[in-house]
Amino acid sequence: MNRLAPLRIGxxxxxxxxxxxxxxxxxxxxxxxxxxxxxxxxxxxxPSLAFVLGGAVLIALPGVxxxxxxxxxxxxxxxxxxxxxxxxxxxxxxxxxxxxxxGLAGFCPGPAVSALSMGLAPVxxxxxxxxxxxxxxxxxxxxxxxx
Amino acid sequence: MSAYWPSLIGxxxxxxxxxxxxLLNGRIAGISGIVGRLxxxxxxxxxxxFVIGLMSGPPLYALAFGSFPPVxxxxxxxxxxxxxxxxxxxxRMGSGCTSGHGILGLARxxxxxxxxxxxxxxxxxAAATLMEFLR
Lengths: 147, 135
Known about the structure:
The complex is a heterodimer. By secondary structure, chain A is mainly alpha-helical. Chain A has helices spanning 5-26, 31-38, 48-68, 89-105, 109-114, 121-144. Chain A has one domain (5-144). The mean pLDDT of chain A is 96. Chain B is mainly alpha-helical. Chain B is globular, with a radius of gyration of 16 Å.
């Protein structure tokens, strides 16, 4: 399937572009809109994020149903899907830490990386700190946590 | 309701992107996973292609609508730095973020992703609401 590798890269590029365009259209590139959803005490709650997540899951559901009937993806020998099933301390603690960071500035990884192309200084700072945090986790913290 | 059409349609495009990556490449469109693997030197062409595509979103939007989408950052620089670190460490420790857990995980009825999504939504609401009172 190596002859399909260039096609997979093309698909990744197009899927990324669609994701970035979708985020831009959805309004979720804007931390102010995200915080308008997460901040319940603002006095003008903005439900947009629920529509974004709802719309995304609505389309993903039939895609997943189709995927479960397939032996393999169109361009590869096998699916590369997460296999863990247990809800452990790392999952909950990591998700809580991510949520806190998300609620502090209004950025999660997708919108922040997508907005890099707009060249705004705080976005560059956020993504640099996020990348540092990811490498710190993968290279140092992960090895120190209990299994 | 009409004010939320762009959010709903934008969200549906995110779903379409995730489905395309799943059915064609057999992979989960999880941004923290893709960026994390890229930083670790894993499958560089595939992950870099997705990230380049992702970054082309705002310019494509500007081509279609005449201006970049709004990005308003109210947080101070130190807060942005702390938030970035927390998001980086947290998404890798929790094996995903709003895209991998929030979109595909929920659509796959993954118990782990339901737990993760409930946790980061609750923590996000708690942090953002608390910040309102500290301002």
